[in-house]
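Weekly modeling sync, notes
Attendees: S.R. (lead), two postdocs, one rotation student

Agenda item 3: backlog of single-chain predictions. S.R. asked that every request posted to the team notebook include the full sequence so nobody has to chase files. The rotation student volunteered to paste the first one in as an example of the format we agreed on. Action items at the bottom.

Example entry:
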Amino acid sequence: MLKTILLKFTALAALSLLAACAPPPKVVAPPAEVPGYEGLQDGEFFIQPVNARYLAGDVARHEVAYNGTEKPGTIVVDPHVRKLYFVMPDGRAMRYSIAVGRAGLGFKGSATVNRKVEWPRWTPTANMIRTMPEMYAEYAGGLPGGLSNPLGARALYLYRNGRDTYFRIHGTSENSSIGHATSAGCIRLFNRDAIDLYERAPLGTHVKVRTAAESEKLEGRYMEDENGLLIPYDEAMIAVVEQRKLDKKAADAAAATAAAANAAATAASEAAAREAALTGQPVQG
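Predicted structure, as returned to the notebook:
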């Protein structure tokens, strides 16, 4: 009996020592909320605030001077600079940052918003299911609206000559994707921006998607930096950006290696502590 009590006491002491050696938990302050992108209860869903790091520079929606020729009330999508405009009177427009998927780059010309949905249901196309069944087959019957739905909080469905183009302007919970080219999807906005646009654009709104030539004429020429974000084109910066991409790739690889080594060391330390607690041996280190 005495031996059993001593073993239990030793085990408790070992676990207490392990806890004492652990660093104190970090207190992480909640990120400051950016006006217009605070958390929002929208029906049964709560939209988390957008982290300020995704709104740096001119990413947040704001009113700007508009130099296009489209009439007020028109939505103008410029996939080449990853911006969307809602044209307003007196040469003004509300500008939104967007993420552009392959479908967004493939659509050209004009369309009309013939359908608008809050927290829309998403169903992959037959082609998506056929080409990538491992990813999309389980959603063949559709995915209900919600925070995990790729169409986000709102969707505008574009039609041409009365027929669905399958081109969508919609929200997303993947805030880090805004400003980037993405592997799938059409035109994504922050959920808060999708709600703002949804409320401005009635059914029947005309939508114009700019060509590359139109974009360069009105916006100038752009190139991607090492983070996949657009910057004004500068031939002298091409080599610099390419080197930064290589440096970033090397740094990411080194960080991944260090993280794996740290995780292995932590697992080994915890295993040793558990073994010591069971055997009554003191914890080393």
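Discussion: group reviewed the output briefly. DSSP finds seven helices and 14 strands in the chain.
Action items: rotation student to repeat for the remaining queue; S.R. to check formatting next week.
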